[in-house]
Amino acid sequence: MKRKLLSGIAAIACLFTFSEADIANLNEAINKAGRQRMLSQRMTKDYSMIGMKINYGNPKEELQKSADLFSVTLEDLIAFAQVKDKPSHQALEEVKKLWDPLKKELLATPQKEKAIATYEATNKLLKAAHKATNAIAATSKESTGEIINVSGRQRMLSQRLASLYMLKVWEVGMDDAELKKAMEQFSAAQTKLEAFPKNTEEINAGLAAVDKDFMFFEVLGVSKSKRYIPSLIARSSNKITGKMNEITKLYEAVK
Predict the structure, then answer these.
(1) Nearest residue to 241 (alpha-carbon basis) of 179, 185, 186, 195
(2) How far apart are CA 58 and CA 43, in angstroms?
(3) What span, in angstroms and rounded, lies between the C-alpha atoms of 151 and 246?
(4) Is-contact 70 125, C-beta < 8 A?
(5) pLDDT of 91-134, one tens digit each?
(6) Confidence bin at 228 (pLDDT 50/70/90)
(7) Considering only CA atoms, which of 79, 87, 94 is closest in space to residue 32?
(8) Residue in 201, 33, 54, 45 with CA at minimum distance from that of residue 130
(9) Residue 168: how many CA atoms within 13 Å on its side-chain side?
(10) Cβ–Cβ under 8 Å, residues 168 and 220
């Protein structure tokens, strides 16, 4: 049990290891823009856990850190795109319009009756962040631009799986359709990443580790059992996100 707890803490810490200095290059911009998608879903997960009074992983602290990181990164991306690409800059400004009011709602005391509305608002933020990421990635002339985008999106999907599971546990009226869809999307992207011809041994090893944790979701995520295990789902999602952070950074260095 102690080993599992330490593993979970390490995975959570890994999520906050990015430097927030000015963005140095396009690959870094794609990576950080993609991470914004993940943060939108992690905040939904944490909001739900706080609402259910589940304290595993300190979701209140994680939510605050995620919100702060989203704000700082968004300003960095806007500054980067302003001098690099007009469509990307416009897409990021749309993200900002959605983010400013949503941040206040997410950091307020969670209310069950507002859970679906908050979920829908973070979904709009996710779509806007995805559009911005694709706009930035489209300016890349390197073969790794797309794969960085795909790898980064896996971080989002791992947190989306957890957020949808938490909403299911909270019993706010969510069915399994979106959860199943997210699983299918994650599995398809893993297949694409594993087939990328420029994968290094380290990348392949990391992807294999992610596959093992994803199997946990496949078995338990859509189970019809009413014996829910939110803390284990939270731990697994953070482990996957942490590992995909590492893999996405490795893809940045691939030529």
Answers:
(1) 186
(2) 12
(3) 10
(4) no
(5) 999 999 999 999 999 999 999 999 999 999 999 999 999 999 99
(6) confident
(7) 79
(8) 33
(9) 24
(10) no
pLDDT one-digit tens code per residue, 151-201: 999 999 999 999 999 999 999 988 788 988 999 999 999 999 999 999 999
The three-state DSSP-derived secondary structure of the chain is: CHHHHHHHHHHHHHCCCCCCCCCCCHHHHHHHHHHHHHHHHHHHHHHHHHHCCCCCCCHHHHHHHHHHHHHHHHHHHHHHHHHHCHHHHHHHHHHHHHHHHHHHHHHCCCCHHHHHHHHHHHHHHHHHHHHHHHHHHCCCCCCHHHHHHHHHHHHHHHHHHHHHHHHHHHCCCCCCHHHHHHHHHHHHHHHHHHCCCCCCHHHHHHHHHHHHHHHHHHHHCCCCCCCCCHHHHHHHHHHHHHHHHHHHHHHHHCC
Output the six-digit token pair for 238.
């953070």
Question: What is the value of pTM for the model shown?
Answer: 0.86
The one-letter amino acid at 109: T
